[in-house]
Amino acid sequence: LFASVELAPRDPILGLNEAFNADTRATKVNLGVGVYFTDEGKIPLLRAVKAAEQARLEAAAPRGYLPIEGIAAYDKAVQELLFGKDSALLADGRVVTAQALGGTGALKIGADFIKRLVPDATVAISDPSWENHRALFESAGFPVVNYRYYDAETHGVNFAGMLASLAALPAKSVVVLHACCHNPTGVDLTTEQWQQVVAVCKEKDLIPFLDMAYQGFADGIEEDGAAVRLFADSGLSFFVSSSFSKSFSLYGERVGAISIVTQNKDESARVLSQVKRVIRTNYSNPPTHGGTVVATVLNSPELRAMWEEELGEMRDRIKLMRTQLVDKLAALGAGDFGFVKAQRGMFSYSGLSAAQVDVLREQHGIYAVSTGRICVAALNSRNIDAVASAVAAVLK
Ligand code: PLP
Ligand code: TYF
C-alpha cells in the first residue's frame, strides 16, 4: 500500500524547529518560527488567560459538544474585535462567524466553502506570503498565483505592481490579504493604499479574504482592525480568518475564527448553514478549552483590561527589540537597517540571503528562515548582542 509513497518535503519553518532542537550549542538562538517569547526567552502564559483557566477549572463545567459554529459568546467577541463594537454590519446581521481551529483552520473552512461556491476560482496570494497559504488553498483544490507585493530594493511595497497584478486577475478570483503585520516581510499597506485595494476588488469583482493573525501586534486592537473596517464600509462581501494564537499566546489551543460578511441577514442564514456543513464534514465541532478561555477574557471587563495591557507589553517589547537591533547593527558598522524599525508585527525581512542565513546557522547557531525572515519577537536582552554581532560578521 505504501511502497510508492514519497517522502513529503518538510515545512520550511516548522522544519527549522526540528533542526534547532537537535542543535547542542548552548548559545543557539531560534529566530525561525513565528512565536512571541518574553525577555526571559519563554512563551508567556498571560495572566488574563491563567485567571480564566482557573475560573474554568473551579466551575468544573461539563464538556458536552459545542454547537458546530462554536461558542456564541466567543463568536460575538471575535466580531467585535474585527469590526468594532458599534459596527453597522453587526447590527444588520451581515456577519457570520464560526469558531475555528486556529487561523489555519479558519482559512481551510473558508477555502472549502469558496470551493463549493466558485469552484473555478483562482486564488492570489502576496509575493511572498506565509508558506502555508499556497499549500492550503492548493489542497482545497484551487490554482494559486502570486500578486506582486514586496520590493526588496526599497524594503517596501511595490504598490503599483500590486495594483496591476490585482487588476489583471479574472473576476471572482480570491485575493488573500494580510490584514496587518504581513508575514513574512513585516511590511504593511498604508490606509490610502488599502482604500485603493478595496476599490480594485470592487471594480474587478474580486473576493477579498483577509487573514488577521496578529491583531494588536502593530499599533493596537482598534488600529490594527483598520483594513477590515475599510472593507466593512465598502459594501463588498468578503472573508476574514482570524487567530488568537499570538495575541493570547495560546498557540497550542487552536483558537481562531472564520467570519464572512454577506449582503443581508437572509444571506447570512444561508451562508451559516453551508459553513456548518463544511465544519461538520471536517471535524464536527470545535474544542471547548481555548474558546472558553478567550470568551471569558474578552467578556470580563477586568480580564479584558489585563489582556490588553499584556498585549501592549508584547507589542512594546517587539518594538524595543527592533530599535535595539538597528542601533547595535549601526554601532557595529553593519550598515543602515533603519527599515527594520518601520516593519510591523513579529517579523522582519532582514535582507539576508539564503547563503548568509546558512552561515548564521552553521557558524553562529542562529536560526532564521532561508528567505532572510527573522522573528524579532524571539530577540531578548540576553541574545540580542550575539545576534547583532553574528549578523555583522556575516555581512563583512
Ligand atoms: N495566517 C498567517 C499570516 C500566519 O502568520 C499564521 C501563523 O501562524 C496563521 C495564519 C495561522 O495561525 P494559527 O497558528 O492560529 O493557525
Ligand atoms: O510563520 C510562522 O512562523 C508562523 C507559525 O506551517 C507557523 O505563522 C509556521 C508554519 C506553519 C504553521 C505555523
UniProtKB/TrEMBL annotation:
Residue intervals of the Aminotransferase class I/classII large domain: 27-390
Matches recorded under InterPro entries: Aminotransferase_I/II_large, Asp_trans, NHTrfase_class1_PyrdxlP-BS, PyrdxlP-dep_Trfase, PyrdxlP-dep_Trfase_major, PyrdxlP-dep_Trfase_small
Family matches, as Gene3D superfamilies: Aspartate Aminotransferase, domain 1, Type I PLP-dependent aspartate aminotransferase-like (Major domain)
Transferase listed as a keyword: yes
PROSITE patterns per UniProt: AA_TRANSFER_CLASS_1
A Gene Ontology cellular-component term: cytosol
Enzyme class: transferase
Superkingdom field: Bacteria
One GO BP annotation of this record: L-phenylalanine biosynthetic process from chorismate via phenylpyruvate
Key words of the record: Aminotransferase, Pyridoxal phosphate, Transferase
Molecular function in Gene Ontology: identical protein binding; L-tyrosine-2-oxoglutarate transaminase activity; pyridoxal phosphate binding
Cofactor names: pyridoxal 5'-phosphate
EC number: 2.6.1.-
SUPFAM superfamilies membership: PLP-dependent transferases (SSF53383)
Assembly mode: Homodimer.
Similarity remark: Belongs to the class-I pyridoxal-phosphate-dependent aminotransferase family.
Record protein name field: Aminotransferase
Organism: Crenobacter luteus
Source species taxonomy: Bacteria, Pseudomonadati, Pseudomonadota, Betaproteobacteria, Neisseriales
